[in-house]
Design a protein that fits this description.
29 strands; Ig-like_fold; alpha/beta; A-amylase/branching_C; five-stranded antiparallel sheet; glycosyltransferase; disordered N terminus; eight-stranded parallel beta barrel; transferase; 23% helix; 13 helices
């Protein structure tokens, strides 16, 4: 491990060096807190509960005796307990048996808690509360495959294990490994972003109300089955990111962090600062030494134990500002980013997290979910930035939804679309996406359903002619994705199922829908039916990714847009020596259409959304060769030699894209 001195001054790093021997040891605190089996099979228990009067351990091992095994109080609010091995030298607590921490408060209350460091929690079928289950398997999973190299072009498949099946139930890690990973590999994605892995008691929270930060969700299977999923992904050359939630925590007390030691603070700020009004959740105290230990060790745990390759940090906007982004429009004025409204404790935590992760794991990938546009979010910590590799381009999906909701096809503003796709800070990499899980949630719809709505129920068969709604929807679905892929960022993201135009929306079982799983699933069976047009959208998404893999436009500098013609509804741009040509006109095709290009020579079509296998009409001759001519184009040419590509022997059909 490369533990060079950091190239910037940080009081926190200096303090870690002085008090803990450096961040390497500090971030391995998951090896000393919670429960640890020692070489002689004794068990060492350690907790931080500064407001507690006394701590006891109870569980199956002692017949749930609440007083027989007290912890010893140590300095700085820490408590320790050692359980010697049994007479047969086996550990005193058996694998897969239940435990509880009994907290006695200064007010005389007796509370039953799960260790914040619990590595596995489970819930009885008819119970609401999760239990701490001791996880120490006699034959743990052994990793087979090395981590893949960090991709230069990041093509992310955002996925949720529980919905990754056509069946109306919670799907498993094993199902994902066997049935979904091969699809992701075939589609050409080289990165998976796994949602809802950190344990969350409420399934319908989509994994964003975390109750146990070190536990992989047991509703999908065992920790070893998740390790196998990641290991198999690595064997396919796919890196895996964890959707990590360090922006807030569930308010649950019996199976969460809230009121762990009986106080209203501990891991969190006291109210009102420690509560998020809109999310009804608790907010961490990032200035606390032990909170930093907990959260930074949590990142290290997922990297070391499960071999994730990085993180998508959720709720970064909420972390960065005392107002949490509530009621803030963020016009881009610098006064919105530099002032007393910025939560410096959170900002320093994110800088620490990124510095430590990238120092210990040079190929680690971190992505920020920030809607505010904080400057230098994705610049190195050494430059004074926050150190993220990428930020999510969150304005792009909002723009597509707005267009489809509010505008007729002939009213699309080509300049505004181009501006939204290119409006990002130079030198800060963005993940572009047409839609993610946010757009699919109940109350909204997938892009395919916005485009085709109820027609998808009856008119997606390729055995019958396309009606105008299906025709328009299929063509625009492909074009929206390709232009977002090519123009919108330095990475691309797709949410599970949307690559083939998944219909309807996403809704988890809850009281409001009679606990139904009907919308909490992904209907991969639709793709497997050759007579349905879903397989055509799937094929285009696959070939779009494979074409990017060949030419590498995501890793290239930003595109040069040479045309954004409002009347023709045409957008043309160059990137990575590839020319992208989009005709968004609803009813007009063009023949002999001139476009400007940067590189002279002969051009051929490499990807065409109008191909029959993609649900198009096959109007372009792929044998045609296109030659450049040196002449001025679109006004004065400031270059020495301006080239023009003349599409002489073909047409650019309406609602079509090719390159």
């Amino acid at each position: 491990v490369n533990l060079k001195k950091p190239q910037f001054t940080s009081g926190r790093l200096f303090e870690l060096e002085e008090a803990e021997g450096g961040f390497d040891q500090f971030t391995r605190s998951y090896k000393t807190f919670g429960v640890q089996r020692q070489p002689d099979n004794s068990l060492f228990f350690k907790e931080w509960a500064p407001a507690a009067e006394a701590l006891f351990l109870t569980g199956d091992f002692n017949g749930w005796d609440k007083f027989s095994h007290p912890y010893t109080k140590k300095d700085f609010g820490k408590w320790e307990l050692i359980l010697p091995p049994k007479h047969d030298k086996s550990p005193a607590v058996d694998h897969h048996t239940k435990l509880k921490v009994v907290v006695h408060t200064k007010e005389g209350e007796r509370l039953y808690r799960i260790s914040p460091w619990a590595k596995y929690v489970n819930r009885e079928e008819k119970s609401v509360i999760y239990d701490w289950v001791h996880w120490d398997p006699p034959q743990p999973y052994n990793v087979i495959h090395p981590r893949p190299a960090k991709p230069t072009s990041l093509r992310i498949y955002e996925a949720h294990v529980g919905i990754a099946s056509p069946e109306g139930k919670i799907a498993s890690y094993t199902n994902f490994t066997n049935n979904v990973l091969p699809r992701i590999k075939d589609l050409g994605y080289n990165c998976i972003q796994l949602m809802a892995v950190m344990e969350h008691a409420y399934y319908a929270s989509f994994g964003y109300q975390i109750t146990s930060f070190f536990a992989a969700s047991s509703r999908y299977g065992t920790p070893d089955e998740l390790k196998e999923l990641i290991d198999v992904a690595h064997s396919m050359g796919i890196v895996v990111l964890l959707d990590v939630v360090h922006s807030h925590a569930s308010k649950n007390t019996e199976d969460g962090l809230n009121h762990f030691d009986g106080s209203n603070s501990c891991y969190f700020h006291s109210p009102p600062r420690g509560e998020h009004k809109l999310w009804d959740s608790r907010l961490f105290n990032y200035s606390s030494w032990e909170v930093l230990r907990f959260l930074l060790s949590n990142l290290r745990w997922w990297m070391e134990e499960y071999r994730f390759d990085g993180f998508r940090f959720d709720g970064v906007t909420s972390m960065l500002y005392h107002h949490h982004g509530i009621g803030s429009g963020f016009s881009g004025d610098y006064s919105e980013y530099f002032g007393l409204q910025v939560d410096e404790d959170s900002l320093v935590y994110l800088m620490l997290a990124n510095h430590i992760l990238h120092t210990l794991y040079p190929d680690c990938i971190t992505v920020a979910e920030d809607v505010s546009g904080m400057p230098a979010l994705c610049r190195p910590v050494e430059e004074g930035g926050l150190g993220f590799d990428y930020r999510l381009a969150m304005a792009i999906p909002d723009k597509w939804i707005q267009i489809l909701k509010e505008l007729k096809d002939e009213d699309w503003n080509i300049g505004n679309i181009t501006h939204t796709l290119t409006n990002r800070r130079y030198g800060e990499k963005c993940i572009a996406y047409a839609e993610s899980h946010d757009q699919a949630l109940v109350g909204d719809k997938t892009l395919a359903f916005w485009l085709m709505d109820k027609e998808m129920y009856t008119n997606m068969s390729s055995l019958i002619p396309m009606n105008p709604i299906i025709n328009r929807g299929i063509q625009l679905h492909k074009m929206i994705r390709l232009i977002t892929h090519g123009l919108g960022g330095e990475g691309y993201l797709n949410f599970i199922g949307n690559e083939f135009g998944h219909p309807e929306w996403l809704d988890f079982p809850r009281e409001g829908n009679n606990q139904s799983y009907h919308y909490a699933r992904r209907q991969f069976n639709l793709v497997d039916m050759d007579h349905l047009r879903y397989c055509q959208l799937y094929a285009f998404d696959r070939d779009m990714n494979r074409t990017e893999d060949k030419y590498g436009w995501l890793a290239a500098p930003p595109a040069y847009v040479s045309a954004k013609h409002e009347e023709d509804k045409v957008i043309v741009f160059d990137r990575a020596n590839v020319v992208f040509i989009f005709n968004f006109h609803p009813n007009k095709s063009f023949q002999g259409y001139r476009v400007g290009v940067e590189v002279p020579g002969k051009y051929k079509i490499k990807l065409d959304s109008d191909m029959v296998q993609y649900g198009g009409h096959g109007r372009l001759d792929h044998g045609t060769e296109f030659f450049t001519e040196a002449q001025p184009f679109n006004g004065p040419c400031i270059l020495n030699d301006c080239r023009v590509l003349l599409l002489m022997d073909t047409i650019v059909p309406q609602c079509n894209a090719h390159m």
